[in-house]
């Protein structure tokens, strides 16, 4: 009889019963399970995964808000976009932001993360999906991001009491989400309102901060206040 180990699932751990093991991964995106012939093998694998920080408890699909982000560069100008859907699958908002002097496409898409955080309801669970392979790695701190933006985004997430997970998905899934929001009349109007609200927010800032909302976050952090004070500080 085999032994089973769930590395990513509802309840990571070692299981003897295959039905209990499968219950931890079925219907859970990003889950992972392996089987071994002996207890010694499964325990060694589990301890190694634990030491490497690979154990991760995941949520069942449909329990979190979903944001699919995009970013790019054109003629030296960067753009970021995000589409937010509710746990029930309804589009809750979409927004797009342009800004100068982005270093590369990855940095541009991190601004899309900012849009996702801004649209998500405070205190909610948020799953950000991107087609890039490097951004989930940076978010999970497997290595530092070269733009030093991820720590600022995480500070904002903590201040808004958001539980954020970042995953990679195929490009076609991201494209489909943005196309759907673009073609639906109701969502086009919602996108205009969201973008106008963000633009109005930036206009209220001192001129030196208008180019990037992240600059505002940097100013907040330099004051040495705890992340939980960020929403209050914005007022």
Automatic annotation (TrEMBL):
RNase H type-1 domain sequence ranges: 69-183
List each copy of the Ribonuclease H1 N-terminal domain by range: 2-45
Q: Which UniProt keywords apply?
A: Nucleotidyltransferase, RNA-directed DNA polymerase, Transferase
Stored InterPro entries: Ribosomal_bL9/RNase_H1_N, RNase_H1_N, RNase_H1_N_sf, RNaseH-like_sf, RNaseH_domain, RNaseH_sf
Highest taxon in the source lineage: Bacteria
Q: Does the keyword Nucleotidyltransferase apply?
A: yes
Q: Name one GO molecular function term.
A: RNA-DNA hybrid ribonuclease activity
Q: Identify this protein by name.
A: Reverse transcriptase-like protein
User: What organism is the protein native to?
Assistant: Thermus tengchongensis
